[in-house]
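During the second year of the project, the team shifted from modelling isolated chains to modelling whole assemblies. The rationale, set out in the original proposal, was that interfaces cannot be judged from single-chain predictions alone. As a representative example for this report, we include one of the complexes processed in the last quarter. Its constituent sequences, exactly as entered into the pipeline, are reproduced here:
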Amino acid sequence: MTVSAIEFSRLGPPKLHLYAMKCDKCGELSPWWERNHCYHCGNDSLTEFELKGTGELTNYTVVYYPPREFLGQEPYVVGHIQMDEGVNMPAPVMGVDPDAVEVGTRVDATLRRMKLGHEGDIYYSYKFVVDDE
Amino acid sequence: MAVLTSYGAYVPQYRAPLGEIQKFYGRPGRPRSRGLATPGLDEDTLTMAYEAARRALKGERGLGAVIVATQAPPFGLRKVSQTLANALRLDDGAVHMDLGANATGLLDAFRIAQTLDVGPTLVVATDHLVAYRDRVADVLSAGAAAAFVIDPRKKAEGIAELGPQARAAEEVFDVWMLGREQEPRFRLEVLFDAYAKATSAATAALEKATERPTGKYTAICPSQPHPQVLRGLAKLGAQPKQLENTQFIGDIGNVGAASSGLALCLGLDASRKGSTLLALAYGGGEAVAQEITVTKKPKSAGTREMIDAGEPIGVGTYYRWTEGRQQQPH
Amino acid sequence: MKVGVLGIGKTPHKIQHDKSLKDLAVEAGRKAMNDAGVAPDDIQMLYVGNVGSVGFNYENSTGLMVAHHLGVVPAGAVRVEAACGTGAWALHLGCVAIASGLYDTVMVLGVEKMNDLATVEGTSIIAQAADSKEEYFSGLTFPSGTALTARKYMQTYGVTEEDLAHTSVKNHYYGARNPSAHLRFECTVDEVMKSAKVADPLKLYEVCPMTDAASALVLCRPEILEAQPKRPQVYITATSMGSGTWYQASDTLDDAYNLFARPVERAYEMAGITADDVDVAEIYNSFAIQEPLGIEGLGFAERGEGWKGAADGSTWLDGKVAINPSGGLLCKGHPLGATGSTQAVDVVEQLRGTAPEGMLRDDAEIGISACRGGPGSVGAIHIYQRMEG
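Output from the structure prediction step:
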């Protein structure tokens, strides 16, 4: 649930890019939300690190009772994806039969509508599809 | 001489049951499309444009311009091309242009790209034409996107050369919307007449401009291969084999501004060095025809495979996904 | 540490459309004060645990509201929030208030009214107790995030869905015997396995319902309770709190274990006991998998074996340690802010010998409540002991 179009202007644009945060001290990657704190070494400065978009599904579940912004898309697969660059991130995997997905499936990122805020601001961000190459 | 350096297409995987929709509303006759390509709830013309663009660009970012042709942008008063350029991480200096257009938009964008001097241009035609209730059977509402990279400066690296264009236009009310209404209005009898007149006139004009007879193209890529269009083309010497690879409406429906794009992608997929393609688009009384010469056999974008790989959805799902849902906050 | 539990009270735990947030809080608060034999004037500080009143009920500042309606004004009052660990956090602050020597008698109250909104709205509000703008933006919810933990557990230890189903069977057995529980039906392993999928591998009988409830405790300096030997002599002997990751993506099985293992080590030391001394435990289990994880974290079983007690009887009422004889959150529901305080009330009832027959552990002397919150963010341990006067 967004608060306002102002929040969208702050949060929306970064979501158009697929990136992780790289610690300026230990060099490890953390998911994009760790802007203030390296989960690995505790350092407080990190830099955006662009991701290619390819990775492997390391864990997943199938959601039958979705939150509002996913209503109508259930059942959908959501899981943890180990990106090739070495960071673990949560994301949905779309357009795939839940029975056809398993740990180890390779996936590729693509842009999708995530939600419509109540001021009519559309958030776009990344979901994944099975990599068929 | 502008050169096409790469292209890509995107067709959503879901197919709505046009036959069942027709039956439900008591509309007689065989459905004119086996299924309607329906974008998922989390897709729209911008996300489809992204899908087609990333297939065309394959990571390339040094573009000078992005032109998006669509009749169904997610927002009014905001450019699709701007957000698309941002998501593709294109260079800051790139020019963003939105063309609100019907199926002629793609060829209009080609014409603009041929004259720009800003470096490679990404042209994307993306659309999701939506009509409700039984009108879906006439409008054949479906969604798809096609993307092309055009570079006026490249000669050697390209796969095709964009040749001359010819146009013919008449003032008619065939398919239109009043302002930013949700669904199109149409008069089919006007449409069928206009198809015949405009496409024949534009194709004939192209013959004059290129000195190439219509019957001599390897393939004809029409946005709408309606019988009226085909009759006009036949009069100019077109043969059925020129159309055998480029038709898709019977499989997935009418995809609006993306129609000319998909037809062209199908033509390119089946082409080889030396093939000549006649791109033909019609919309709102105007037809545009363009000669395209393939200079290097392109790697297939898999357009036919995407069209064939459809997953059926039910009537309820189709309406739940298309009827106003995307405008509700969630 | 020794904090006296002077009085306890709770409302039924279920959907209660006729009662508001205020009604529930007042009911529980009054029951606790009556049980304690105190008047509102005697309460010197009020800690009200509530998580989602802004979202569920369009109101805020629950502590101030309850203070007014319970009549404890002019004593200080504050709202406490720490995701699903809120009730336990309110309890911790109450213990600290007493142990500091600054206060003689305080009240701890947890309250949540979740059912005024539709379930799908409620789910979105619950998701705010995680990073709903980042991680949960990606389609994860609490059930699906926990499902990922369940799958990791199953893969790491070679445990099947049937193995885990026994936990629900045990909880439902006692839930059926708990008059104040939300869900009061027994079930078999087969019925658990056939229940509707919520987030694979979690099934309907492995997730808790959304519940309206309130529960409260009146705490006092030990001397005050000792001076009333006719009252049941139940004391809180340890309170130990910790935190963990705010993100499901960073929550490993080690983290899930440590969320309880770290604070419980301090708690056992504070109380001067070991895991073997515990007779009864209320362990947070809004999702069934959290019970085996909690059993392991508290030291009642080896890692990867916490699920076995539900299958072999050792965590049933008369087993080595009775785990969730109240039916757990699976049956009582999870009224977010009240869960931690309800766990406390239920343990105290066991030690007093006043828990309903059929779920009352014989002669329980030492109990523990373990509450958690967020994607792996709060660990809260309390130890209780019945002491002969």
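Residues 28 and 40 of chain A are 7 Å apart (CA to CA). The radius of gyration of chain A is 16 Å.
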